[in-house]
Specification:
The complex is a heterodimer of chains A (about 260) and B (about 325).
Chain A (H helix, E strand, L loop, with lengths): L1 E5 L2 E3 L20 E3 L1 H16 L4 E8 L5 H9 L3 E6 L8 H13 L5 E5 L10 H9 L3 E11 L2 E7 L3 E8 L2 E5 L11 H7 L4 E4 L1 H4 L7 H5 L1 E8 L7 E4 L4 H11 L4
Parallel strand pairs in A: 1-4, 1-6, 4-5, 5-11, 6-10, 7-10
Antiparallel strand pairs in A: 2-3, 7-8, 8-9
Helix pairs in contact in A: 2-5, 3-4
Chain B lengths: L2 E8 L1 E2 L2 E2 L1 H11 L2 E8 L7 H6 L4 E4 L8 H15 L4 E5 L2 H14 L3 E5 L1 E5 L2 E8 L4 E7 L5 E5 L15 E4 L12 E7 L12 E5 L9 H10 L3 E4 L1 H5 L20 E5 L5 H7 L4 E6 L12 E4 L2 H13 L2
Parallel strand pairs in B: 1-4, 1-6, 4-5, 5-12, 6-11, 7-11, 14-15, 14-16, 16-17, 17-18
Antiparallel strand pairs in B: 2-3, 8-9, 9-10
Helix pairs in contact in B: 3-4, 5-8
Classes of the chains: A alpha/beta (about 260), B alpha/beta (about 325).
Chain lengths: ~260, ~325
């Protein structure tokens, strides 16, 4: 079984994010890391291939600047190889442009299954996986909290507002996985060393055959017209508990006529 | 300034439109002279309530018979939009709403903007508002495409309001076969048992986070919620850890809540969580770390041990 996992390399979410004042896009100057949301897809892919008795996990990613550090993390977890689409023209691409690029890259890889996180931790549009399935004209199941592959049938527990649905489709298919679906493994020292030698194929738009007009800022066909500071919520009283803080809460709830 | 027609992608359950659908109708009414709804499912059953919230027509495919919605909804929507030309289509930020908008975007080659909490028309162009960095800044995005604007909105961004209108006219829409891409089907439904007030509309929400230390400690959150006639919620950290089901998750990837009182117990206040609750009228936070970001938004902050403060609060409420 061949599984392709879409991964995104993002600015470290632990650092405060900032918009570039000239473009109003998220600054991506510092080192990028593997989006934690995607580590679940990588882990799920490794487990599914193992359960299928063999196969291969490949990665696909897109970056304007040739960044590979996040890809190395996923390779260290156990993925075999990676395709990175990198081109200056990609900066400012929206969800649809991103999906067209990733879709073109994935179609060259002929996977049985494509996995992606439900949404990235920096842009969180939550639409790219389903758009990729649209570009590939593949069936898809989003918001998976459990996946099982039985021959050519993919069986998924799909998270819903009320609980979950059992959903099935045939391969090749795309499935987007929720955070927490599996426990991502930590790369071993051996894995980290091996990852340095694993192949990362770098492609530009021309090599991929994607028209630069559908990506980047102009391809996005949307424009940030202004950015405003949100009204700050004022912090109230903060007290140290000395054994009677619960009375303070009861009093507060009493003033609001909750109790 | 208003435009002619906005189409709302309607969702619902057992013949009732969802609260989010009614919120989108209210938003669309403020922007367009005519508001219509598209339902991939049994829209006829919702026609009265949709009409009462200002929809003139409901275009409906009828029941999907177990097909997973997105692909089928998008194919039928595309066909519908070839004969009508709405200025914008508003989707709710739900799994099916996102799937449908995404598939439609590819089919008609138009951009989608997600995570919005506000909308206006400026010079005839839809401009949507998205909070970023945990809601500290708002980004306003104008559509520059030649075609309908596809926008996805977060729940609780607008107030639903009935107009007292009559039943919406029901217009049947032909289903369109999307081919093999439409092969995903729903074979079973599992509804988690839910009792008491629901997160979406509870007056009071009591939430627990990583500071609880262990899954069993969530029992006291449920007990406290019971005493306050509140819904219990959770941070993403303990949902991901499997302590409580996703249906309790409050935050960016979970539910957005705006109760009268939000009581956060052992929650540090990561951006992911703040996005889902900082619109609450009053916020009380209990956390042992005085530097926790949650105190930046709390009206009453208690620096203390949840394992002491919460049991004491439960006792105090019981003895009243």
């Amino acid at each position: 079984m061949k599984v392709v996992v879409c991964v995104k390399q993002i600015p470290d979410p632990a650092l405060p994010g900032e918009l570039d004042p000239s473009t109003n896009y998220l600054k991506r100057d510092d080192k990028l890391i593997l989006d934690e949301s995607d580590s679940y897809g990588v882990e799920m892919a490794l487990q599914l291939v193992e359960a299928a008795g063999g196969g291969e996990v490949s990665l696909v990613s897109m970056a304007a600047n040739g960044e590979v550090s996040g890809l190395r993390t996923a390779l260290a977890m156990g993925a075999e190889d990676a395709v990175l689409v990198s081109d200056d023209a990609l900066a400012g691409s929206d969800a649809l442009g991103t999906a067209r690029v990733l879709g073109a890259a994935i179609s060259r890889m002929s996977p049985d299954l494509v996995l992606a996180g439900v949404e990235s931790s920096d842009g969180y549009t939550g639409t790219v996986p389903e758009m990729i399935a649209g570009v590939l004209e593949m069936p898809s199941i989003t918001f998976a909290k459990q996946i099982e592959v039985d021959g050519t049938t993919v069986k998924v527990q799909r998270q819903t507002e009320a609980g979950y649905d059992d959903v099935e489709c045939q391969t090749p298919a795309l499935v987007s996985v929720t955070a927490g679906v599996v426990e991502p493994r930590y790369p071993s020292f051996k894995g980290i060393m091996a990852a340095k030698k694993k192949p990362v194929e770098e492609l530009d738009l021309a090599a991929l055959g994607v028209d630069a007009a559908v990506v980047g800022r102009s391809g996005a066909r949307q424009e940030t017209v202004r950015v405003t500071a949100a009204e700050e919520r004022q912090a109230g009283e903060v007290i140290e508990d000395e054994g009677d803080a619960h009375d303070k809460i009861v009093e507060f709830l009493g003033e609001l006529k909750i109790v | 300034m208003s435009v002619e027609t906005i189409l709302v992608f309607g969702e619902g359950d057992e013949g009732s439109p969802s609260g989010l659908t009614l919120e989108l109708l209210a938003a669309a009414r403020g922007l367009a002279t005519n508001v219509e709804v598209f339902v991939a499912g049994d829209g006829a059953a919702m026609a009265a309530e949709l009409g009462a919230h200002g929809a003139t027509r409901v275009h409906t495919t009828g029941p999907l018979d177990g097909k997973l919605m997105g692909v089928h909804a998008a194919a039928a929507l595309q066909a519908h939009m070839e004969t009508s030309s709405p200025d914008a289509v508003f989707f709710g930020q739900t799994p099916d709403g996102r799937d449908t908008a995404a598939r439609l975007a590819v089919r008609i080659d138009q951009p989608v903007v997600t995570n919005n909490v506000g909308a206006s028309f400026e010079d005839g162009t839809l401009v949507v508002e998205e909070p970023v960095f945990g809601g500290t800044q708002n980004v306003f995005t104008a559509f520059k495409n030649d075609g309908p604007a596809l926008a996805i909105f977060r729940p609780k961004s607008f107030e639903a309001e009935a107009t007292g209108g009559g039943e919406a006219e029901v217009v049947a829409v032909d289903a369109v076969d999307p081919g093999p891409a439409g092969s995903a089907s729903v074979t079973g439904r599992h509804v988690e048992e839910r009792s008491g007030p629901q997160l979406d509309d509870a007056e009071v929400v009591v939430s627990g986070g990583r500071g609880l230390g262990q899954p069993e400690a969530f029992e006291m959150i449920d007990e406290l919620a019971g005493l306050l006639d509140a819904a219990s919620g959770a941070s993403r950290a303990i949902v991901d850890a499997g302590w409580v089901p996703y249906s309790k998750q409050v935050g960016q990837t979970g539910k957005v809540v705006k109760p009268n009182v939000y009581l956060a117990c052992g929650i540090s206040g990561a951006t992911q969580h703040l996005v889902g609750m900082k619109g609450s009228k009053h916020i009380i936070a209990i956390n042992k770390d005085p530097e926790a970001p949650i105190f930046g938004v709390a009206d009453l902050g208690i620096v203390g041990d949840v394992h002491k403060v919460v049991p004491a609060l439960i006792e105090a409420l019981k003895s009243r």
